[in-house]
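Course assignment 3, question 2. Fill in each field.
Student: A.L.
Task: Predict the tertiary structure for the chain below.
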Amino acid sequence: MFRDFLFGIVFVFLPQKIRMGYSGFGLQKWIFTQKARKPFSRKRGADVDNSKFNNRFSFLSGVYSKEEAINKISIRKRYNLVLAFLLVIFLFGFAFFFIKGFKKYEVTNKNSKNEIIISTQAESFLILKELGNQYFENKDFANAVIEFELAFAIKPDNEIKLKLLTCYENLCETDLSYCDKYNDLLNEN
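Answer field:
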């Protein structure tokens, strides 16, 4: 630390020529004294005549005259325009086929979902009907009504309707709400 302090004091008192433009920030004097260039202006030290042409094109690109350079630029622009047009057509074609395939998949998937729902409903109907029958045989009419109502909601069946009416009739003696359900079911079709 003392060494750095001593170096700083000695460095400050050295003449400008000995420091050679070194101001202590690691930059040379000509770097930090130059003015900023305006945005999009010419490069420093560029030729005055045809400066834009000379800045853009060099001998390395194989262009020897301004006319040849302009022709190459116009050809390149046409080429890029054709490529962009072909890319847009390709993307629209890809999107068209993708959407068409997706719609086909969507229809197939919807049909398979409907088939699954129908088969599930058929299985549920059979299970509920069988459970209701077991409760009905055991004279447990309250649980039989629950199972038969669910089965009847899935698929209105005359056999289930008759068993529901019987259950309602037996339960009507203890609970009057079942009498209303009995009358509603009788008046239905």
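Instructor remarks: The chain has a mean pLDDT of 77. The chain has eight helices and no strands.
Grade: pending
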